[in-house]
Amino acid sequence: MTPFDGNPIAPEIAAFLAQSHRLLIDGQWVEGSGSHVTSDPATGLPLATFAIGGAAEVDAAVKAARRAFEGPWGRLTAAERTRLLFRVAELLDQRAALFTELDIVDNGMPRFISELTVANCVEMTDYYAGAVMRIEGTTTPPPRHLAALGEALTYTLREPVGVGGMIIPWNSPLAMAILKLAPALAAGCTLVVKPSEETPLTALALGQVLLDAGLPPGVVNVVNGFGADAGAAIAAHPGIDKVAFTGSTATGRRIVEAALGNLKKVSLELGGKSPVVVMPDADLAEAIPGVAMATYFLQGQNCMAGTRIFAHAAIHDQLVEGLKAFSEAMVLGHGLNPATQQGPLISATQLARVKSHIESALAEGATLVTGGQSPDRPGHFLQPTIFTDTRPNMRIQREEIFGPVMAIERFETDDLDAIATRANDSIYGLSGSVWTRDLSTAHRLVRRIHSGHVSINCHGAVGTNIPFGGTRQSGWGREFGREGLDAWLETKAVTAKL
Fold first, then answer.
1. Of residues 444, 450, 443, the one with CA closest to residue 415
2. Active site residue: 57, 197, 269, 479, which one?
3. Catalytic residue, candidates 303, 400, 409, 479
4. What are phi and psi of 166, to 5 degrees?
5. Structural domain boundaries in the chain
6. Phi, psi (deg, nearest 5) at residue 493
7. Any catalytic annotation for residue 269?
8. Has domain 275-463 been given CATH number 3.40.309.10?
9. Mean pLDDT of 361-389
10. What is the DSSP string of 132-158?
11. Which among 11-15, 41-45, 210-214, 467-471 has the top mean pLDDT?
12. Is there a catalytic annotation at residue 257?
């Protein structure tokens, strides 16, 4: 077996993997305080060795970011910042093959997802490059006491938050970096980025893109490392003005606690347990593949995953039969293989965690329809898995699984309030979907589902210009769109007595 299960990689990808992977601080690639080895999750074999940093390296990066913010980056005009971001998008597009295959071998995602991800990242960078020139303040009537004395002028300025810290997860490494980095740079902030220790490679390649695009030293610093060291140092650092984090709700709580020291701003995109409601009149030819991929996209390792399926009794059996056939026909394999529809989970630890949910569901009386096993091959693979006869109090219905496991619950009522009560029975509120031919029913039910993003006859329909974020324990704030830019801006009010 070759290191990539018989699938070739391009020479430039092989050269990138073989090079020395260091930290990017103040425009220079520097050594860290230790090293770590990442592996190919589809084979379990070593992939690359990279330097890691801790509190000392984070401190150096924060100081470099502050110098850049108060110096060359802060003095750029909006037009100059726009041109630099358009150049970043251009280089991302030129190096699309590199980023596509790095995410595949580092994360395990199938090629069709990685190609889509890179294209979306180029689009997002273009979008925020174009938004720089539209960062505008307003004029407003002055205070009453000044207006009464004569002429006065009150206006607002939109200014960057300052130095930002970004803690990036492993489930979609490049996309999670760009959706935070592009609006932050558009706003005029400088950054310290910590990629996941599981998937650092696209962040390092992105760091080189930023250097090649001409960003001044210190504007973006990349500190590889572990959450307990580098991540904790970013969350607590008094020189950081805002932390943006995507990951688990438990880690999000710890970041909030660490941020109390200087009351830094915090944005959080956390866990999800998204409901998928299939009504009796749903078009099953559309719903079956749509519901399946709502769960299985990225091997279920995505916060939007629709893993709680609520199926009306009138179509329950037909839906389950269709989902079973779809699941058993899915092609599992290395993401480099164009035929692959589902890749491996990120690690042996994650695979064991997902299997513990499967064992719990069986112990609690759920019915296993298909899947639940790992195929006899290297790597961290798990068959697409379906459970029926699930109940609201089961662990499989309560906890985020982050794997290709769906739990189907039958319902018989046509009362939309009752349906929504079951869909909302979760601590999370990130995404969701409703499947029906009746648009009146769809819009009425969507209004009742307490999630930050709900789709009709599709699932997880996120886009560059569409705000995305959660309610309840799914997080704080919004990313994407205008809201994603606003999160990195402060409003300053100015009044002048004339």
1. 444
2. 269
3. 303
4. -120, 125
5. 11-270+474-495, 275-463
6. -95, 135
7. yes
8. yes
9. 97
10. GGG----EEPPPHHHHHHS-EEEEEEE
11. 210-214
12. no
